[in-house]
Amino acid sequence: MKIVIANGMHSADYIIHKYHNRYNDLIVINNREEACRYLSMNNDIPVMYGQATRESDLREVGAENADLFIALSKNDMENYVACQTAKKLLNVKRCISTVTNPKNVDIFKELGIDSVLSSTYILGEQIRNAASIENLINSLSLEDEKIIIVELKISDRLRVEGMCLKDIGISDIGSISVIIRGQKSIIPNGNTQLMADDKVLLVTNEENREAVLKVFKRKK
Amino acid sequence: MSSNVNTIVVGAGRIGSNIAKKLQKENRNVLLIDKNKEKIAKVDDFSGFVETGDATDLSFLEENGIKDVDRAVFVTDDDNTNIFLSDICIKRYGLKEIYIRLTDSRKIKIVNENVRCICPFDLSLNEFSDLMKGEKK
Prior knowledge:
The structure holds two protein chains of two kinds.
Chain A: E1 2-6, H1 10-19, E2 25-30, H2 33-42, E3 47-49, H3 55-60, E4 68-71, H4 76-89, E5 94-98, H5 104-110, E6 115-117, H6 119-132, E7 136-142, E8 147-153, E9 174-181, E10 184-186, E11 199-205, H7 209-215
Chain B: E1 7-10, H1 14-25, E2 30-34, H2 37-42, E3 49-52, H3 58-63, E4 71-74, H4 79-93, E5 97-101, E6 116-118, H5 120-133
Parallel strand pairs in B: 1-2, 1-4, 2-3, 4-5, 5-6
């Protein structure tokens, strides 16, 4: 895979470290001399000193037709223009931008950036998850957050513990795809009972997310 | 903000403040925005509206009536900011008349075709060519 890593210092270093192998062709461009020095010293890889927002610089490093373009600058506007340049002028297939201002996550997506990440935004989501249900282990969003997969653990303190799936009131708002019980994974039906220590994987969508999580509240 | 503002100018540098003054003289209601308080304070001979804040924060722009204006002029000293603002104003607010300044005119290729670009470098170059040809004195 051809991956372009634009700007960033420690974040760029981490990504290079993780994906620098014979399967990937990494292209690193950075507009800060200090970062260039740091990245090339820590990794056995050429680093170009240049502007990722400039078409000619991106062409010079060979960013054309890359499979992935990752913009890691702390300056959101710079990331935005770098991604648009890569997409519109260099035929890059997919762009990922990090943003400092979490409000830009939705805006950048609206403007056509494929994936937008903000650590504060993720933190906000995690807090929302943690606050809404104590047994939630993990939550994954797909298709631009239209589909949500939730992993949660059933404990004896939950209202649904011991109940059959057809009785917990979830059928219209989500679906339990698999139950992991000890070493076994069970594809459930309406008569399957939920037991303490079960791990449940359920699929829902954004509209029904809160309603689904309410089903797994504690006993009163 | 007064609802009869019909033009927003973002960036109160020399070009921004002079565009704002010019439009105001043509009896347009202008709001001039800059994130830097001192730049706003330096603008004299302008009796339109002024506001200090970060225009890339859309809630700030919305509070100041971006949805209801006829035109916007984005002339901050950062090309990337100007391009971003023009894109979001077309996409989200359907604004039709947008002007931006580009210091690096090569970036014009990624700007939406309906946005009018002011490129000082190109203007100077053209002016030089005209002067050379003796078309201007």
